[in-house]
Amino acid sequence: MNRAGIVIALGGNALAPDGEVDSIDRQFAHTRTSLGAVVGLARAGWRVAIVHGNGPQVGNALIRNELARDKVAPLPLGVLVAATEGWIGYMIQQSLENALRAESVDRRVVTLVTQVRVAEDDPTLLEPTKPIGRTMSEETARSLAAELGWSVAEGPRGWRRVVASPMPLEIIEREMIRSLVDEGHLVIAAGGGGTPVYRTAEGDLEGVDAVIDKDRAAAILGLDIGAEVLLILTDVDAVYADYGTDRQRALTRLTVAEAEELAGSGQLGAGSMLPKVEAAIRFVREGGERAVIAPLEQGRAAVDGEAGTTIVA
Questions:
Q1: Which of the following is catalytic: 5, 54, 59, 276?
Q2: Do 51 and 212 meet the contact criterion of CB atoms below 8 Å apart?
Q3: Catalytic annotation on 71?
Q4: CB 74 within 8 A of CB 133
């Protein structure tokens, strides 16, 4: 067994691409085609933890909440995140077990519903800005906000609910995850960024009605379990300088200082590439060996330094 550890962050849109009817059959199909890099790393003996996104899935759960609210009591957002951790984890776990068996790779897979601690006084909790759920008219959005206590805001394509996205501080189940990974098991954890919680003055855990960025959670998980590599899989082939201009160019290797300068330049999308680069910076700056941002289909090559963008100290 290769004793090197890797945390792989897999986007929720990899399982439910934009513009496609995201039936469970289609999501299973996408899941089964998205795990090539994981299987290759497992075959090579890497110790693996997987963090997945849940944006499309938790958005659909919110719609079900909304439409059924006169039949059953709506579930809090934190509970819905935990629910998606379970069922998306089930899809990945089953698909990965089948793929490993087909490749004669003798590794076990487990899904762990994970709590992630945030600060009770995180300022984002008072100023929700993260859009989730469906796009609505202003009238519908304001009506639901009044009825259900939501915060809503207008975005590029219409009005949506907005929620807080606090900074993750630690993985509550980190010791269990680290033990399972060290034993050679492939662990699916902190799905959707994990379920956000805070500690009371008495030391008890309480849930927070918020969402955590999954790439930031993956960085914290990597640090908490002592992983050497953070691999963030996305839908672009690299991090770009001057993206969207005629001067854009792919960046194959960055130091932390160079990545920090790029992150502060305003060139990276606040809701897309910026949090990925920030997560990579944190992981490397706080002890990780390297972070790699790469397209889904080139994940294995990216770990070998042949694709994507690598960020090092």
A1: 276
A2: no
A3: no
A4: no
DSSP classification of residue 278 = H
Helices (H) and strands (E) in the chain, counts: 10, 17
The confidence score (pLDDT) of residue 1 equals 59
Residue 214 known to be catalytic: yes
Best CA proximity match to 10, nearest among 47, 46, 43, 48: 48
Domain definitions of the chain by residue range: 5-58+65-117+170-312
13 has catalytic annotation: yes
Q: Rounded to two decimals, what is the model's pTM?
A: 0.93
Catalytic residue among 78, 130, 193, 308: 130
> What φ, ψ does residue 106 adopt, rounded to 5°?
-90, 80
What is the reported pLDDT for 156?
Answer: 87
What one-character DSSP code corresponds to residue 194? -
* CATH number 2.10.109.10 is the correct assignment for the domain at 5-58+65-117+170-312: no
- Which of 79, 65, 77 is CA-nearest to residue 125? 77
